[in-house]
Amino acid sequence: VAPWNVDTISNPGFTKTVINKAPPPRQEELSEEEREERMRKFVKENEKLLKKYGMFHKYNDSKKFLQENPHLACEDTANYLVIWCINLEMEGKHDLMAHAAHQCICMQYILELAKQLEVDPRACISSFFSKIQVAEVEYKNSFDDELRQFKERIKRRAAEKVKEAEEEERKERLGPGGLDPVEVFESLPEELKKCFETQDIPLLQKTIAAMPEEEAVYQMKRCVDSGLWVPDARKNQPEEREETPDTAPDVSPEK
């Protein structure tokens, strides 16, 4: 899956400062597929380190860790943290997401500082953490605002992905007539629900026989169209064909 990038830096507030310059990284001309492959390889090799960085609480600890692992000061780390934040939010781990989001914004600021100064991000690790720890009110407010907006975007994207996953799951479970068995089951009269819940075929036949014909036809057609009832599933048993319900929600009696 291609990394989902978020533009989190709008007012970084850095000024041109004198730092020990390292040459700017060479701009790689990579295709989308090559970037995705690079990202997968980077995550495979560094995921434990990435999550460890994402859990630090103190700036000094983050600074020391990145100085010991300077290769993490890169765009792939920021992209990984974005994806991780989305997954944490989808899992309902809101506090953990908020913490990882803070670490993601720190990384984004390091990358932005490197871009402004036209140096390698590794040369900006110390400068950023020194800056943020003694930041003026305006600068700190800018950082906090960026973090707040980023978390809002994470929450929106996580909600979208949950909705997309639910819709995909719904499509996959549609019956032969295009109806959702879960929705159909939930809308059945209670007496019919009980039949499918207990897989009580005689009770189902009795319940259908007691219903007005039009209602019975309507309800059982919906059961067939949703896959709740497969009337010919036991075609090898003629005595039960077309009058024996074979399936119930989340149950496959034939197995």
From TrEMBL:
Q: Which UniProt keywords apply?
A: Cytoplasm
Q: Where is this region: Disordered?
A: 15-34, 160-182, 231-255
Q: Which residues form the Cdc37 Hsp90 binding domain?
A: 10-169
Protein name listed in UniProt: Hsp90 chaperone protein kinase-targeting subunit
Matches recorded under SMART domains: CDC37_C, CDC37_M
Q: Does the keyword Cytoplasm apply?
A: yes
Predominantly, its location class is cytoplasm
Q: What is the lineage of its organism?
A: Eukaryota, Metazoa, Ecdysozoa, Arthropoda, Hexapoda
* Locations listed in the record: Cytoplasm
Q: From what organism does this protein derive?
A: Timema podura (Walking stick)
Q: Per the record's keyword annotation, is Cytoplasm included, yes or no?
A: yes
* Coiled-coil regions, chain positions: none
Domain spans labelled Cdc37 C-terminal: 173-254
Q: Which family does it belong to?
A: Belongs to the CDC37 family.
Q: Which InterPro entries has this protein been placed in?
A: Cdc37, Cdc37_C, Cdc37_Hsp90-bd, Cdc37_Hsp90-bd_sf
Q: Provide ranges: composition bias, Basic and acidic residues.
A: 160-174
Classify the source by domain of life: Eukaryota
